[in-house]
Amino acid sequence: MKRLFEIAAMVSVAVWLTFAFAAPPQKAGKASPAKQAGETKEPVYQFLNPKGIPGPIKVQGLAPRLDTIKGKTIYVVACEAGPQTGPYLYNYLKEHYPDTNWVHIQHNGMGPTDPKTEGEMLQKAQGLIGGQSW
Amino acid sequence: MRFGFADQKKYFERVARLNNVPKLRWVDIPRTGPPETRLYPIVPALIEALTKPLTKEEMYVGTYTPEPLERYIFKGTYDEAIEFFNSSEHVDSADADIGIFNDGSPIIPPTEEKVAKMLTGTSLKPDTVVTDAKGNPVRFSRYETATVEKVAIIGVMAGCKPEYMPLLLAIAEQGGGSTNCPGTSSSHGTVYIADGPIAKEIGLGAKHEFLDWGNRANVSLAKAARLMTINFGGCIAGIVRTDAGNPLSTIIAEDRDGLPPGWETVSEDYGFKKNDSVLVKLGTRGFGVNEFAPGASRRLQDGIGSLADDLGVTGKPGPHNILAWLVPRIAPLYVNTGHVFIMVPNLAKPVGQMYPTKNAVYEWLFNNFKATIRDYQHHGWWEFFTGNGEQIEGTNKEGLTFNQVAKKYGTDYRIPVFGSRSPKENLIVVGGGGADECIWHIHLLGGRGFAVNIDRWR
Known about the structure:
The complex is a heterodimer of chains A (134) and B (458). Chain A has helices spanning 2-19, 33-37, 86-96, 115-124; strands spanning 45-48, 57-59, 73-78, 101-106, 127-131. Chain A has 134 residues and is of the alpha/beta class. The radius of gyration of chain A is 23 Å and the shape is elongated. Chain B is globular, with a radius of gyration of 25 Å. In chain B, α6 crosses α7, α7 crosses α10 (216-232) and α12 crosses α13. Chain B is α/β, with parallel strands linked by helices. Chain B is built from 19 helices and 15 strands. Chains A and B meet through α1, α2, β1, β2 and α3 of A and β1, α1, α3, β3 and β4 of B.
């Protein structure tokens, strides 16, 4: 179940990354203590914080790792535009790790993922390699 | 696990956290090179990511609660605060110093007093959360939220006046000043169109040089939109946007006085009433100013000169549709998506004499300018927007994909250039000066967006 959640989460991440890459909140600059105290005799003010308000996030741990990839079904999902990565990776893995059941999904473009394919993946995948590959 | 370009790792980390798996494993891959040097060498790391036992942190299940925001971010003299809010940090990927709280232009430090004054521009309480029309909190960069007071802080920093507050809050409702920040590339710009009584109330420019500098409302509101993206959403130029950038970051009003008789206002075009004040956010891709030589468009209306010759109307006085000359010249570049034309009133006038409504012009654009599927297949956006042809083509009645249409009807099947499914993916805005030499053309990112009601923020 946990692995399914992780795979579902990874698919979700993949979709997000199509257009919506985000960065962690940037570090707020901090003045030195001396400056904070105000070294001059000019009036000292407090200045309001313009940063957006972050909320809590529920954290799901990662699924247990595989002891080996031999005999396992592992999906290679190369997301977004361009077939310049996914097929090459899939063929390479198939050739060099023939004891693993590799399944390739090339998810191009902005459209929704095929529900049938995604459903199968959630059922069958024991591992997933997701690629950005613009 | 996931692999991607090293300069995308920060985006990945944040998105992974928002999807409940902050420790999702990641492997870097170079952007360029053949598979032998770019891709195959990372395979051992990919296998390791699948098999290496989890750390304690990776197994953690629970709630990540960020530290509460401090109400105040700085204490000091006003001059010290100017230094603080205008500070920058070096961004390696940009090889430049990038503003931490600012967009690279000077910021006015937000004191309690200035923010309180800004808050007089709305009847809403300072702790009111900015929500969309359905009441859902607006999330900046899909995470942080903002209150009315936060928006007032931004307004102060950008140099806005209190009376701009409803528009500032509508900008916040639209998610701030970027359609793609954080995002992988920044070739997308943002243009806001404000329409309705509020535009005149606050003096938002709609006439001469309205796309230019000089007017406080236009300039400071556009700056405020950027500051929301930077401060609410954590956008850092050069880190969360990794392409060449886009200079389009502006807000304008439509010149209602310059509309041809019968043409819809922007508010009416988006389904609101004429007296409603609305704000439209346009995500832009390609754009350009199409400048006609002085007098060229007037000669066209007189049935003389080069444009008249091109359109085959020599000797025939107008009205003539200058878009008929312009549109074929820009059509090949952008296919099957919405377009915006910002027309000065004198150029819109003869078009209005031929087409009684904006909708009629949209229909003309949609129905008369086509590309073949084969054209689109040779277009750089083919893979991206059609999923290599696997998405639904918008005009066939059978609900077929592009590939299915091509198979059934051949690749000569013609699809619209201006819009993909509906003429109303296009937009005309009338504004600018009294000359007749300029049409701005903007190629839209994902349609013409939607309008929000500014009046609810008064």
